Amino acid sequence: MLYQLYEAQRSLMEPFADFAQAASKLYGQGAVFGQTPIAQRMAAGYDLLYRLGKDYEKPEFGIKTVNVGGRDVVIHESIEVDKPFCQLRRFKRFTDEPKILQTLKSQPVVLIVAPLSGHYATLLRDTVRTMLQDHKVYITDWVNARLVPLSKGEFHLDDYVNYVQEFIRYLQGEYGTCHVISVCQPTVPVLAAVSLMASRGEKTPLSMTMMGGPIDARKSPTAVNNLAMNKSFEWFENNVIYRVPDGFPGVGRRVYPGFLQHTGFVAMNPDRHASSHYDYFKNLIKGDDASAEAHRTFYDEYNAVLDMDADYYLETIRTVFQEFDLVNGTWEVKSPEGTQELVRPQDIHSTGLLTIEGELDDISGSGQTRAAHELCTGIVSSEQHHLEVKGAGHYGIFSGRRWREKVYPQVTAFILEHDQPQTRAPQGVLAQEDAVPAPSRARKRATSAAARKTSAPRTRTAARKSP
């Protein structure tokens, strides 16, 4: 019933939001009432009301070009694999300059596994844009569960793990090799996916980079962890799970609604959000367009949320935050063939491991991601590295200045360090990137030098000392 009430309230607010937007324009510069004494305040007030009342749709990545070798390269998005609950999205780079084309060809293939925890994959826009300078980039673009008809079946945490394995195999089939980056929530299912592939004797990714995720949520628990740990499984099932109402393709599907997640996000820092909106109002009055646009950009992303399938959400709560199955060695994943397979991270041998944590992360606490090293005992210590980003919160390790200046040089150096020649045959299309030889040693040295300038010391978790 709560979902229906929310949709009714949203429909009721829609005309008022439209009115506020129109009124803001009427009081804008050069408009009908733009010359009245209080025009700026009225325009700012109505604009704020509009943004508080409007409905936020899924944003676009909007990456049109990136700079490679001093030249702008055109980006084209395409869907490479289309699953009911996820699309594997590729950012293909195009150029007609032979020198730049050869650079694009030689760069590593990276699968970015975006979180399925409330926001869309576009939350990693800055991650993708930066990675595109030196890598072929694919990302998991998760689908809003309320848009998936019941006829498409259920979606469980096991399905998430199986999707990741399928995407890795797809990239290996296309290029022969790939690297995987997981941000926040997917660190756990990604580690499970690679572990299962290793246990079966399959080829695993050349490297795994895990950023700010709850591998072991018992370490330095945050407010997010405490909520999941202190409430019973039944509490979550009875209080946050609702059925999608009429008007959506997924009508009748049990979900954890996006609007409830958004309420939880805001409730974590209500004063900060109230202050941010008031600053936006003042910036509009002052005519500080740059600050106002930065506010819009952030909240267009922050306020756009998706529904998660109830089975997946509840199983994540139980497996990751209540029973700690991964670190306890008791997690079994059901394969597409229906067999139960035990997740054994110790079976991973040929994949490099880099973990990254933010010093001030209030979502995944200190040590939670680093715990992956304690599980991956089959990886030699020289292939295990850890980075703690000083002064960075949760979002700072994958977005913003600290990501670009401190984290990214480390990530790209680590990937190049573990890259191998790709085996996909060129398709004969000069204007698009293909996969051929691996990066030169000179490029590796240059990138590693850049990383050393901006990074914190790397540590070997297994050996407990610097490499």
From TrEMBL:
Coiled coil: none annotated. Residues 212-418 form the PHB de-polymerase C-terminal domain. Pfam families: PHB_depo_C. It comes from Variovorax ureilyticus. InterPro entries: AB_hydrolase_fold, PHA/PHB_synthase, PHB_depo_C, PHB_depoly_PhaZ. Residues 447-460 have a biased composition (Low complexity). PANTHER family: BLR0908 PROTEIN (PTHR36837:SF4), POLY(3-HYDROXYALKANOATE) POLYMERASE SUBUNIT PHAC (PTHR36837). Transmembrane segments: none annotated. Residues 422-467 are annotated as: Disordered. It comes from the Bacteria. This is Polyhydroxyalkanoate depolymerase. NCBIfam families: PHB_depoly_PhaZ. SUPFAM superfamilies: alpha/beta-Hydrolases (SSF53474).
